[in-house]
# Entry
Amino acid sequence: MNDSTFVEFLPIMNAEIINGENHDSKQLRLLKVVLHALNESNCRYALIHNAQNLERAVLSDVDIAFDCNPNEVLLPILNRLSETGNVQIIQCLHYEIPHGYYYILKIGNRFPCFLHLDCLYDPLGINRYHIPTPFLLKDTVTMPWVSQTSQEKEAIYLLAKRAVKSNISQEGHDVLLNYFSRATDTLWSYVRYWFGPEGRQHVEQLIRSKNLQRAHSHLKNLNACIESRFRYRHPLRYFLSIVTNVMRKIRRFLLPTGLFVVILGPDGSGKSTVTGLVLSQLGRAFRKVWRFHWRPGLLPKLGHDLVAIGKQESTTKIFTEVSKYRGLVSLVRFVYYWLDFVLGYWLLIYPRKAQTTLVLGERYFPDVLVHPQRYGFAIPKWLMRLAAKCVPSPDLLILLKDDPVVIYARKPELPVPRIAEQITSYEKEIKHWGKTAVITTTGGVDGVAARVCNLILNECARNTVRHFHSFIVSNRYPIWRGFPSLNNAKVLVDDRDSMFNALNLYHPYSKLGRLAKSVTISMPRALQRIIYKKSRCAMEMQRLENLTETIYRIFENQALAISFATGTPGPHRKLTAQVSRNKKIIAYAKVGSGEVVHKLLEREKNVLKGLEIKGFSAANVPRVLAFESCGEDNLLVLSSPGQVGLQRPLQPDDKDVTFITKSVVQYTRILSIDEMHNCMGFEARIGQLQAADNRTADLLRHSMECVHKILESSGVKVAHCHGDYTPWNTLELANGSLYVFDWEYASDNSPCLNDLFHRVMMPARLVLRQRPNRTIDQLLDLHNDPLLGTVVRLVDISRTEMPAYILLYLISLIVREESKEGTFSEYLQKALHHSLKVIGHPACRHKILVSAYACEPGGGSEPGVGWNMCQAISHEHEAWVITRMNNKEQIERALTEQPNPYLHFSYVDLPYWARFWKKGGRCVRTYYYLWQLVAWREALRLRQIVNFDLAHHVTFVNDWLFSFLALLPIPFVWGPIGSHPKSPSNLASNMGSHLKDRGRYYFQTFIRVADPLFWLCAYRARLIVGIDKEVGQRFPLSLLSKSKFVNHTAIGVEKIFDRPMSYNDFASGIRVLSMGRLIPVKAFHLAIRSFAKLIVAEPTSKLVIVGKGPERAALQKLAKKLKVSEHVEFIHWLPREEALLEMAKSDVFLYPSFEGGGMVVLEAMAHGLPVVCLNYGGPGDMITQECGFAMEVGSLDDTVQKLAAALKKLAQDKELRIKMGTAARRRIQERYLWKSRHEILSQWYYATLLKTNYCVHK
# Structure
């Protein structure tokens, strides 16, 4: 049938199909239309049925024999029928012979019915019935509207078909009885030819059979006859039939024609009811249907199982918040049922798909991730997500949802909030699976089932088109080929265009994309035509044809080659047509539909005309050639650059800097914040967000508050900006100049750095897939970029103003971004949130995970450091602290007295059986090492709840044991850390203490070098803080921390004490205080020896030593030996408040310790005491020459003499004591107060998150 005849016949044909009064008549009318079209096509065919009895035939399958490939004749007819909208090709199954096809056609939309056409072209007779089509086509009977086989040949065909299938119904038996009870000699001769001499006997026994069981037995005998006769008479054909049958099975397995569909939904959404209706309505759309609930059922269910609950849903209330099974039992059960999903798919579901089966499942594996407790699983979410990656996705996943109140009214099992929570969880979960659809269950169960049926049928039809695209198309459209594939076409290449020319529309940045492009353009044209298939989907091609005709009219040339780039998916998606003449690009046309896209194209037209008038010189830009409408589409036709354009690099270069600089410098001016609001359309966008999502609206509002705060006095510098300046919207021309296109987002009132930010952010977001936090950090650090920093400095944007301009840029993206939910993308939300964090907005605090083994309110030394550091962190950030269980009572008491909503504690310890050996301070470092592993497990749990920005190790202040934070994928700050330096050997109090110190030092060195976890810590830490410079010089820190080390004390004081200082009169002598644990590293023996020297000059002076420890007896003995015991007072350990009172009563603080810390020195300085110490370890770094004396270490006598001289000088100069005491207080105020520690912490965190050297931002 030619095109004109067919077009005239379409209205009649459509009416014939639609006006049927019942399903059977619709099927028969469609069959008559198809046969009528075959008659017009002059194709020789024969219907293998009695034309007078087709009403019964259309309820099964209609057999038709052809003398040519059925696809070449029938598929164009069926495709034209599908254009009417009332017929759809659901299946086109290819059988074992080269040209055997089985079509399943859907008729109607609301209540569809189906017609099955079994079409055969087999001149050799290698089909499963072994009857060649020339035999069937010989002596056909021609009727007014159909050509059919003779009755004898129809009878022999039906007999062979029943025999091969060895199965027959009572109706089929009656048909054969009708034919053979009045068989002619011709028919019996056919029986003898195909079934052999015994064939007649078996046929007569078959038609005389009184029951179907005996009939089946005779059919098996007939099957043996026809198979045996075919095997011996035609061995080559027999072998060929085996080969083609194997090929068919392989093809069916590789390209399964069935469909696997899963229906999800909360309890009460009607899954079971809808599934049942769908199966009843689609039984004829597939060869078979199969249904399962939750899992395929390959493995038997376990005893006392929860997984059968779905089958009881209608009668039993199921509401499980806690899994019935825990621990190993739950894990084993999970693995068992997970195997059922994985193996069940490949052994049960996939083989059925290969047999053209509709497999319909309820719930499936996504339900496990949404509600694991239902099935008795208590498994970490990450493990279930990992397991889900191994579970094959269905071809189509359908979520049934409705208003929770409506679902509750249907099935009041779950409370309404729980139903709402389930719906949200399902919506999030389906994003992890394949093709999905969401259906709102309104309009009654029949309406829902109809929508589900349409989804399934449309998906099946798409699969059919994908498999047989070369036939299921119309021939009257122009030809375009999809690159790189038909289903995911980036470019539709006109057959009159070359691939080399057309792919100028495609500039990929992925390695795979560049490889595909390079390989394609180097292929011979013949190979390109084989690989890249024709794209002729009727709806899309109609649009392309209309656009092509419009472009022909604009250029008054019908010989143009027009290829199309399909554009970026999204609400503003546009086609780009490349117009070529003689393989030379002469123009581009941007095409889009909808009101928003129309406005964008109109804006681009006006912008380009304005640039042309202004004489824009920053780059080459296209000229506007035409702006027209084509149906629902709008076309903006633009000039081409006139020369070859090369793809631009992903990273910015000097050409980008030149373009942005010229644009900014030429048009910069200043607007107020309110004027900027109006230009951006901020208030309107806030209104949209307020209606959709208060949280995102608040985020945008906070952002503008920060902009106000930073730029209120200076205003906003604005300039002419491109609006979408990215490497894929630019080309480098042959003469080296820059060609810039896609100006639809251009504006004269954009913040002046928008193009610069866009040039950096879009490649990072879309190509490099960089996290938003990292991208924002990169923008914040543009001042330090050697190339792009010149633009920032040129427009004079300070570091303080930079975050505000970044926020304005992000807000401009949000204002123009559209989403179905009315909000904006998660990427921009995270970017905005991170920007506010960096600025320090109270609503967006950083979430910090803190490790503080020692942490006790009011404690000294390590516990005090831990508590005060946590308080300082929570000043500007939100902290989750992991500490020991024995700290809980004091911490909870302190938080009750002074609540802190930004400080959260988790208490962990080893189980009793693993810690019974630890008593007090015994083996504390060993226990600490093991505790890290327990703390790591707790950190993993917290990470599932909280999205931490970074981690911070606080205590122990230890530089030779690892921190568990290194085992987490979080950037972390390690420190302050440190340890006691190696004590000077000549100053040791005795040989035993000297050997013990050396053993400690070398043991710590060994642990640093030998422990791989310590190396991991040093490697993974973004910033390492040492309590002194020597920490960074210890191996392996000296190797791994060169660019990320800073020294800062671990300790501090809570306040400057305002108790009046006691400066005794010279006549009564001075009171020297020394305080701490009486251990060798504190070197109290040096304090007594130097004090003994002071007594000679100042006999009225007094030394007070506060503390306890193993050295007490030795120190008392030393004082006695030096004859100063009457001037030295030993006070046992005191509570903190009483110890501080001792400082208030003293004049000088003497502390000749070798340790790396020394918090007590800061306490003394806060009381206004001048300090005398050694210039060694921690104390020497804390004081300056203005607030005390730090004496160099020499020999024992020399060191003692220096300490004594310092004491003597202070004893004899009251003014000096007062001056140094005041300076000590001032130094504490400037550097060591806990209440100001948050400032330095914020600097550390800023440097850590930016991954830059701390010194740059210090």
Remarks:
- Residues 256-467 form a domain with the Rossmann fold fold (CATH 3.40.50.300).
- The two ends are 83 Å apart (CA to CA).
- DSSP finds 48 helices and 39 strands in the chain.
